[in-house]
Amino acid sequence: MKTKFVIIVPARFGSSRYRGKPLVKILGKEMVIRVADICKKVSGLKNLFVATDSKKIAKVVSDNGYKYLMTSSRCLTGTDRVAEAAMKIKSDIYINVQGDEPTINPVDIKKVISAKIKFPNHVICGYDKVHGFENPKNINLPKVVVNSKSELIYISRALVPGTKKENQKISYNKQVCIYAFNKIQLKKFYLYKKKSNTEKIEDIEILRFFDLNIKVKMIKLNSNSVAVDELKDVKKAEKIILKKKLV
Which of 74, 117, 166, 229 could join 140 in a cystine, given CB atoms 3.0 to 4.6 angstroms apart? Predict the structure, then answer.
C-alpha cells in the first residue's frame, strides 16, 4: 500500500522579525508562491496546502491556483500551524516546508519523505553544512549537533558544538526547515499548548520534541539554500535563484 503524504506550508503574516514576510516579492513573485511552486513539483496540487492566519495571504495563494487552510492567529509556531491544519486532512505523513525557504531543492523534500517512510517513529528534519556564503555566528541560523545514529542531540542559535581549543577548526551544520511528522506526533506537539523552556529560550520549535520524548532523525541534505529571515536575505535568495535558473 502506497504511503500518502501531504505538504503543508505554514505562512504567518505577523512575523515578529519580518511582518508580512510570506508576501515579500522575490524577483517579482511572492515568496509563499515561490515555495508552493517548488513543493508542487513533489506533491502536485492535490496534496499541497498553505496554512495561514491571513486573508491577504489566502487571497494571493488562491489567486495563484493553490489551496489554503485558515488557521488560528494564536498558533505558537509554524509546526503548531501545520498541526492545526493536519486535523482537517487525512494523510499518513505530513511534510512541513517553511514558507521562508524560496530556494529549497525539491530533491531534498523527497529525501525527507523517504526518511519518514523508513523511520516512521521519528520526527524527520533536514540539515546541511554551513556554506561559505553564510556566517555560522548568525543567530538566525540554527546550528545542529547529531549523534552517530543521525539523531538530534541539540540545536542552537549559538555556535555548537563548542570547543575549549582556540585554534580547533569546526565544521558547523545548520538546520534546513523541512520536517516530516505523523498525525500522532503533531497532535502531541500541539496539545502541549506552550513552548518548552528550552524552545522558548532558543526560539526553535523542534526543541519541544525533546520534552515530548520523541526522537528526531536528521537527514543530510545538499540544499545550498537560504532562508529569508531578514530583508537583506531577499537579495541572497534572488542571487541563488538566478544562479540556479529557478526563475
Answer: 229
